[in-house]
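To the team - 2-keto-3-deoxygluconate complex, inputs and output below.
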Amino acid sequence: MGDAPEVIAVGEPLIALLAVGPAPLADVETFSRHVAGAEANMAVGLARLGHKALYVGRVGDDGFGRAIVRRLRGEGVDVSGVVVDAGRRTGLMVRERRALGPSEVLYYRAGSAGSALGPADIDAVKAAFTGARWVHLTGITPALSDSAHEAVLRAIELARLSDVRVSFDINLRRRLWSDEAAAARLQPIAVGADLVFGDADELAVVAGIGLSPDGLDAARALRSAGSGSVIIKRGSAGATLVGEGMPVDAPAVAVGRVVDTVGAGDAFCAGYLAALLDGLDPAAALRWGNGCAAAALSVEGDLIGLPTRVELERLIGDPGTDTIR
Ligand code: KDG
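Output:
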């Protein structure tokens, strides 16, 4: 496999402060500190499964930035694409935890180091596009700033020039922009991507059509407009691949107790891409994606639950065994 990256992931790495214990944010006094960011999660997921990922993003020259770089490096991700921006702070998110109803997320990332990502940061790793198989992008980055949007477009351009395929996870963040603004930037990216991941809601927004609960209409609309394969993430109902031929469904892997849903989508992408890199067929890739998502759901924080190859094989190969002696 060598040291050349198989996948180049581009995005904003974040520090996430997660409330310890269920309470409204106003009452939370203790937080646990985690490394997060959708694309960084995906890169770590790939590394745990034995694949080479290069991460491109910006951190501040601060303790949070150092924690991110150390963690990614320690996980085996190539951090040569990470720029330390001395003039800005590392992006931050704060998340409460509720026993009932949705948990609120607050972002402290406007003007962050990560939001200053630009096309020059992509050009700086241009050589890595020769030989890479995939570039992985999400719909979060184009929401951060004009320059971050341009960085995404530059990554797509270099991918095309180097025969690298583009994987795009919509990851609609309504705290960052309106559906209209998101559709305007994300639709052209989705339509040009070889692989698009999204839930039914995200796919409908990006396709510019009404919501259908199964997401099939939106997936088909995107495919007719030019997208390659579309993966509909359906949470506890599993995932569906809409590509050539009939849609392929794969059930979710049962999770005894869901501890933390955030990051499961990134884990799914990591599992799916890892399986494709291994030369497995799309049905197996869906199983790997679902397995990784289940593993991530069962642990708090975005990174901790991401499985190694052995853990994934145990999870999807022998679901009846719960003790290894
Ligand atoms: O997918 C998980 C992400 O939501 C989390 O790590 C933070 O990247 C993040 C974001 O922008 O919400």
